[in-house]
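User: Here's a structure from my thesis project, written as structure tokens. My advisor, Dr. K., wants to see whether a designed sequence matches the one we expressed. Can you design one independently, without my sequence as a hint?
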């Protein structure tokens, strides 16, 4: 999300503060919790010895993240000072965001007093209003967590010292990494890095308690939420101290000063709290509410990994202890150190499986070493443009490789170097020796030269070619597949002349997709069409089995929270599955994404079985581990397996980890080994079904001789393939035979249903193939399923819909009311006439044709102002604000109608505003093609009227 990129850029900007004129001013901040319920802080800032006629001051965050209110400035004598406001727009990734600079006109040599309020806790809508599930800072009546970016307004001038004091509610404590001097906290990091310290420090406050321990030369304090159980708090103390000690040992160097861990609950509305990653002083790990009640020892592995990575910043990124490289080409090493050694330390401390996480790094690497920008849902080879990446250019300004690619490449390369050093020295040295050598130097580091010093120069030089062409490194690391070894559907030879054929229809990864809304050109797919195809296939083949591999739970990128509508659509989808008479469904990621309670509630009364053997609640599987189904003369055993998703920072997977903290995920391979004897005894064929990564399938599961077939939702495994045409990338693993086991992956079940046909004999599967049955517009809807859908939206949803306003992220949509196109045409008649010729003017008809006039997610983009008090009122199909009128693009017009000059409107709608509705999920929108179709011309008469 946006804040992640902003944080990095700002730190780089602030490092240069030490190059300014000799510091002179001192800052004194008094921070008071004004209204915890409204998440408001009142701040008083005294600037002493300013000695400047003009002082510009700002928060080092964006206005969209933190609101500043009631700003005023005066001399110590009480004289009010003049203030100018200037909005500065910055592009962060693909978004423009605002920072307001306040310039104060002051007299020299007098102290300046500044008062302001900041309001934190606003949910970040960085992607066109889509829920981000996170907030930049937060406070309630029990605790707060806020970054210095959101509290400390800083003058654009040199400062010699800063003093901070807090006025908190009774019984609250504050966790900061600074010494307390008679009620004032004073950062003592040094003048050159003082601003950097203030901006990037995180501040926890509330009902906290702490323990402090000396680790090496550092005073480490661990703050925990006071109401938690004693055992839970002791567990956090122990792990935090052990983590700091492990990282200190890794670098072989002291950290100095103080370090603070703070563990606080999640927010009341289940948001993640985004904060600065400043680890010269402080590290945060957020808690899950279940921790208090159940006594389990979260945070989970991925949260701890992030904590360890940010702790390492203390040694490698931030003053006064940071490591600096002679060439920017070597800065990739810092990313590698964090990602790779966080896993190593996590394994040593016992809260994650080190080999699983290293395998995850290996899986990500092939897909990013080529500068590939094409993304596709289907598996097809993409030629790589030679030469492949030079890893040493990952941080250079001319590289087009972004942070995500760097984080995938750097830890794999570091792992590779570590293995090479150990092999070359027969285990006597590792990359840790290189790291410790570099940390002792700290400045003017050179990776090859330093490896040469630790190992030898000849060995160091031998590594250069592989780091300059990652294709060579990939070959050396054995992550390239030969084209001749790609899978096919042929399993084995047989002497039996008479073979039997078994057939499976299967879906997967549908995420509750019922049908297209009618907005896109491609209208393939939908459960009503699927039911028709299923009925046709069953009439042709009597014994065909109908399966779902998982991820059938309703989910869209717009919702991390479960809404009543989504819950209703989930039930509707299961009703449709039941109407289609599914034989079996497996558990995958989204079945558990909203917690096991929803899943268990929805499947409790279903006629078709749902299988999953290795996910436990209260010591028992959350659903049936396996079932046996008869197909022809064969009995087939289906074993459900779920592989826990691994990530290092992916928001969905972090959410998943916390929401499933009450579940136990057993090792998939051990679970298969446990159930195979029973399944082999009772069945002719054994099928493993569920969410299983291609990597685990290839490396472990196909080795079980009694497993005949594997069907998985998880197809993503970027394969580098060496062919006669050069190296290519296959985006998804290919279905086919692997070690005489037939493996089939779901691909594009939104738009088709797969028919898998296999020939079998007494020894198992002989051959197989997949036929894709496309659900095109030529396939008519099944009448029964069509009725289920229509009744749901026209009856159930119409009574309970809750429409969330669009464009909440845009301030114009918060400041004015809607008046309708008729009010606009008085002054803009030609624009109004031109608008009537566009599809915007009849957008509501699309919903009426598709019977979606009561579907909130559809309605809000086909009317004007849905969800706003003055906008379209849901359910009123004759409302004057139906269709996409002027104000959807130009903003609400009530203030403009009253005072055309003072009431500002959006003159030229931005791409971001257009793509709020015209996103990839609901539109074939191309800005260059679509924008001219709705663009107005302005005649001179109307321009004069403005």
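Assistant: Designed independently from the structure alone:
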């Amino acid at each position: 999300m946006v804040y992640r990129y902003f944080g990095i850029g700002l730190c780089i900007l602030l490092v240069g503060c030490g190059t300014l004129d000799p510091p002179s001013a001192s800052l004194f901040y008094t921070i008071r919790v004004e209204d915890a319920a409204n998440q408001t802080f009142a701040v008083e800032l005294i600037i002493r010895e300013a000695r400047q006629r003009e002082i510009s001051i700002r928060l080092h965050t964006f206005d969209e993240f933190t609101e500043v209110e009631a700003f005023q400035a005066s001399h110590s004598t009480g004289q009010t000072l003049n203030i100018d406001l200037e909005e500065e727009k910055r592009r962060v990734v693909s978004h423009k965001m605002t920072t307001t600079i306040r310039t104060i006109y002051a007299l020299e040599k007098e102290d300046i007093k500044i008062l302001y309020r900041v309001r934190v806790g606003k949910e970040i809508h960085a992607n066109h209003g889509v829920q981000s599930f996170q907030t930049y800072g937060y406070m309630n009546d029990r605790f707060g967590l806020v970054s210095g970016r959101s509290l400390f307004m800083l003058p654009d001038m040199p400062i010699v010292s800063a003093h901070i004091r807090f006025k908190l509610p009774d019984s609250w404590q504050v966790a900061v990494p600074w010494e307390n001097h008679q009620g004032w906290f004073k950062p003592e990091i040094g003048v050159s890095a003082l601003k950097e310290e203030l901006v990037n420090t995180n501040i926890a406050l509330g009902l906290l308690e702490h323990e402090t321990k000396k680790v090496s030369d550092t005073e480490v304090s661990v703050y925990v939420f006071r109401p938690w159980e004693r055992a839970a708090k002791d567990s956090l103390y122990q792990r935090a101290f052990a983590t700091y000690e492990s990282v200190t040992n890794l670098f072989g160097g002291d950290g100095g000063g103080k370090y603070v861990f703070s563990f606080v609950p999640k927010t009341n509305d289940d948001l993640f709290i985004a904060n600065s990653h400043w680890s010269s002083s402080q590290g945060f790990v957020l808690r899950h509410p279940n921790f208090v009640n159940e006594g389990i020892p979260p945070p989970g592995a991925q949260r701890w990994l992030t904590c360890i990575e940010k702790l390492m910043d203390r040694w490698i990124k931030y003053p006064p202890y940071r490591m600096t490289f002679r060439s920017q080409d070597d800065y990739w090493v810092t990313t590698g150190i964090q990602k790779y050694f966080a896993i190593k330390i996590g394994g040593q401390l016992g809260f994650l499986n080190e080999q699983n996480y290293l395998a995850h790094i290996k899986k990500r690497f092939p897909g990013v070493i080529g500068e590939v920008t094409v993304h596709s849902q289907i598996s097809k080879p993409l030629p790589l443009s030679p030469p492949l990446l030079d890893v040493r250019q990952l941080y250079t300004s001319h590289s087009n490789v972004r942070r995500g690619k760097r984080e995938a490449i750097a830890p794999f390369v570091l792992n590779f170097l570590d293995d090479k050093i150990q092999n070359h020295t027969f285990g006597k040295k590792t990359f840790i020796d290189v790291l410790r050598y570099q940390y002792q130097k700290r400045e003017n580091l050179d990776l090859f030269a330093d490896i040469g010093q630790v190992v030898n120069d000849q060995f160091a030089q031998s590594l250069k070619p592989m780091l300059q062409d990652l294709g060579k490194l990939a070959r050396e690391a054995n992550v390239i597949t030969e084209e001749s070894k790609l899978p096919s559907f042929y399993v084995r030879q047989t002497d039996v002349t008479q073979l039997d054929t078994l057939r499976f229809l299967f879906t997967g990864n549908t995420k509750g997709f019922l049908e297209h809304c009618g907005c896109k050109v491609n209208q393939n797919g939908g459960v009503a069409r699927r039911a028709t195809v299923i009925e046709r296939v069953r009439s042709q083949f009597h014994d065909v089995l109908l399966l779902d591999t998982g991820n059938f739970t309703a989910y869209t990128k717009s919702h991390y929270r479960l809404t009543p509508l989504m819950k209703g659509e989930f039930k509707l989808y299961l009703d449709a599955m039941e109407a289609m008479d599914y034989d079996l469904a497996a558990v995958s990621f989204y079945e558990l994404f909203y917690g096991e309670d929803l899943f268990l509630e929805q499947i409790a009364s279903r006629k078709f079985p749902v299988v999953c053997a290795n996910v436990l609640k209260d010591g028992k599987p959350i659903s049936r581990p396996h079932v046996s189904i008869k197909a022809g003369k064969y009995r087939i055993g289906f074993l459900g397996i779920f592989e826990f998703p691994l990530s290092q920072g992916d928001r969905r997977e972090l959410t998943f980890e916390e929401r499933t903290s009450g579940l136990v995920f057993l090792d998939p391979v051990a679970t298969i080994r446990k159930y195979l004897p029973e399944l082999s005894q009772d069945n002719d064929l054994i099928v493993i079904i569920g969410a299983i990564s291609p990597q685990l399938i290839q490396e472990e599961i196909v080795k079980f001789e009694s497993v005949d077939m594997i069907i998985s939702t998880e197809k993503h495994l970027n394969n580098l393939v060496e062919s006669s045409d050069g190296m290519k990338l296959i985006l998804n693993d290919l279905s086919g035979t692997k070690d005489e086991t037939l493996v089939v992956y779901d691909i594009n079940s939104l738009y088709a249903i797969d028919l898998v046909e296999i020939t079998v004999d007494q020894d198992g599967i002989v051959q197989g193939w997949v036929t894709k049955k496309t659900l095109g517009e030529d396939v008519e809807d099944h009448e029964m399923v069509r009725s289920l859908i229509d009744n749901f939206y026209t009856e159930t949803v119409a009574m309970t819909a809750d429409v969330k306003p669009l464009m909440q992220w845009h301030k114009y949509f918060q400041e004015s009311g809607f008046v309708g196109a008729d009010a606009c045409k008085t002054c803009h008649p030609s624009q109004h006439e031109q608008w009537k010729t566009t599809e915007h003017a009849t957008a509501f008809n699309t919903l009426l044709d598709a019977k979606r006039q009561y579907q909130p997610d559809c309605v809000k983009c086909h009317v004007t102002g849905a969800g706003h008090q003055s906008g379209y009122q849901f359910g009123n199909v004759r409302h004057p604000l139906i269709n996409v009128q002027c104000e959807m693009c130009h903003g609400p017009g009530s203030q403009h109608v009253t005072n055309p000059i003072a009431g500002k409107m959006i003159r030229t709608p931005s791409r971001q505003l257009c793509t709020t509705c015209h996103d990839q999920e609901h539109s074939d929108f191309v800005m260059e093609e679509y924008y001219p179709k709705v663009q107005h011309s302005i005649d001179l008469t109307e321009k004069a009227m403005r």
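When you compare it with your expressed construct, this may help: The longest strand covers residues 25-35.
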